[in-house]
Amino acid sequence: MRFSLHGGPCGHSCCLRVENVSVTIGSDPILQNINLHVHCGEMVALIGPNGAGKSTFLKTILGQQEYDGIIAFSEPGKRSKKPRIGYVPQSPAFDPSDPLSVADLFACCMSRRPAFLGLSGSMRELVAECLERVHGEDLIDKRVGTLSGGELQRVLLALALEPLPNILILDEPLSGVDIEGMENLMDMLDEIRKTYDLSILMTTHDFSMLDRYADQVVLIDRQVLISGKPETVLNSPEFSQAFHMKGGRA
C-alpha cells in the first residue's frame, strides 16, 4: 500500500497519521494494529526491546515495506500529498583511509557530476548552506572516514534536510555518540524542528534525554504497548516489564 492522500481528524495542524497498520513477513506477524499521530513540530521517540519491530516500522513509513492499514499525511489548507521524508540511517561505516571528503559525499548524493571531477562553485556553495543548518560548516573538507560519531551524524542530518522534508526519520541517531555529543545532537534536533516546523520520528535505546526533548514516546513490541508524555511512558508498568528498569534508568 502507499500513502493515503485524504485528510484526517487532526484539527488544523499538519499530521502524519498511522492507523491500524500491520506488517506480516512470510507467515510471521511483525507489527499488529499500530496507531500513531505525529504533528508538525513534534518530536516522537519510538522505543522498544530488540526485535520489537521498530526498524520495520520505519521502513513502512519510508515506503520500503508492504503493509495493511492507513498511512496518511495532511496539511491544513493544502491539497493532500505524499510527504517529503528525510532519513538518517544508523551510522554507516567509512574507511578512515578513504579520501572521500564531506563535500564529495554531498556531490555524490546531490549531483550527476562525478565527484572525482571536483565540485563546481555552485555545488560547493549549496553544500556549505546545507552544513550551516547543522552548524557543521567547518566539516566540508574533512574526510568522512575520520569524522567522530557526532560529526558524522551532523553530516548525515544535513543530507537528510536537503530538500527540507515534512518528516525527519532517524534510526538510532544517538548510537556511537558520546554523552556530550548526544546533548549537542538533541539540542540541534530541537532547534531544527522548531525552526522548520517539521516532525521528527526517531528510534532510540537511550532514554536519559527523552523527558527533556520528546513530546511523545511510543513503546512498541510488535504492537503499541503504551504511548504518551515521556514521564508517563517511562514510569509505566509496560516500560518496566519491557526493559526491567523504571524511569529510564536501570
Structure description:
With 250 residues, the protein is α/β, with parallel strands linked by helices. The protein folds into two domains: 1-83 and 207-250, Rossmann fold (3-Layer(aba) Sandwich); 93-199, Rossmann fold (3-Layer(aba) Sandwich), CATH 3.40.50. The chain has helices at residues 54-61, 102-110, 121-132, 149-160, 179-196, 210-213, 230-234, 237-243; strands at residues 15-25, 28-39, 43-47, 68-74, 85-88, 167-171, 199-203, 216-220, 224-228. The protein has a six-stranded mixed beta sheet. Helix 5 (179-196) links the parallel strand 6 and strand 7 (199-203).
Summarize the structure.
This protein is an alpha/beta fold and 250 residues long. The chain has helices spanning 54-61, 102-110, 121-132, 149-160, 179-196, 210-213, 230-234, 237-243, and strands at 15-25, 28-39, 43-47, 68-74, 85-88, 167-171, 199-203, 216-220, 224-228.
List the helices and strands and how they pair.
Blueprint: E1 15-25, E2 28-39, E3 43-47, H1 54-61, E4 68-74, E5 85-88, H2 102-110, H3 121-132, H4 149-160, E6 167-171, H5 179-196, E7 199-203, H6 210-213, E8 216-220, E9 224-228, H7 230-234, H8 237-243
Parallel strand pairs: 3-7, 3-8, 5-6, 6-7
Antiparallel strand pairs: 1-2, 1-4, 8-9
Helix pairs in contact: 4-5
Rg result: 19 Å
Overall 3D geometry? globular
What's the helical proportion of residues? 25-40%
- CATH fold title of the largest domain: Rossmann fold
Low-confidence runs: 1-7
Major beta sheet summary:
6 strands, mixed
How many DSSP E strands? 9
Distance between the termini: 40 Å
Q: Strand order of the main beta sheet, please?
A: 5-6-7-3-8-9
Order of helices and strands: EEEHEEHHHEHEHEEHH
Report strand %. 15-25%
